[in-house]
Specification:
The protein contains ten helices and two strands; from the N terminus they run αααββααααααα. It has 237 residues and is mainly alpha-helical.
Amino acid sequence: MWGEELDFEELADDLAMEAQLALTMTSQIHELEQRIDVMRRALDPTDILRSVPGVGSVKAAQILARLADPGRFRSLAGVRSYSGLVPSRNSSGRNGTQGGPTKSGDALLREALYSSADVARKIDPTLAQRYHRLMSEGGKHHNSAVCSIAPTLLTRIVSCWRSGQHYVIRDVDGRAITPEEGRKIVAERYTVRPELRALRRTTKPTEWTSRRSKESPGAPSTGSSTLEIRDRMHSSA
């Protein structure tokens, strides 16, 4: 960019400009988050959604925005179906098997529930136990396991909303615990071994890289989906 000689003074000016832009964007993001929080509090003044592990202010606003009134559904099965995270059903004659999520509901709601569930499983032992079982015994990979516990988290959110009560983190024996206790229990009992997590990966990084490198420039992209990229990002969790 600078040719044969590097002008340090101009480089410093460029870096200062980039830093100023970054600070401006950070300030704008902070302002937007504050505005979002004000609107969220108007809909959820008692912070029911904020009490859910893995659900921060922005995610709570996102879930509320996509669900509208969480109490409007006639049944908890209805709200799970609306999310599109319930498994699809493949029927052939008398036999039927379950497929992946139907994805028939709201995509932004699914995104919020997925990311929230991935955090909640590290705090809530009941979710961590199911995630661990799906990974170690059910043969599921990370994405599939998280998608399986996300509807459970959604059901609990709606149940708390209907009852007007905060989410209570419990151990698998039903005992109420603090988030700190939950993290400790999850770390001690439900940590997925690194070698098992590597075995459950949806796509091996080496294969993904080599496949992309062999593609022609005009070929349609066959790269990993957003969830597969998240899987690699969370592979060390």
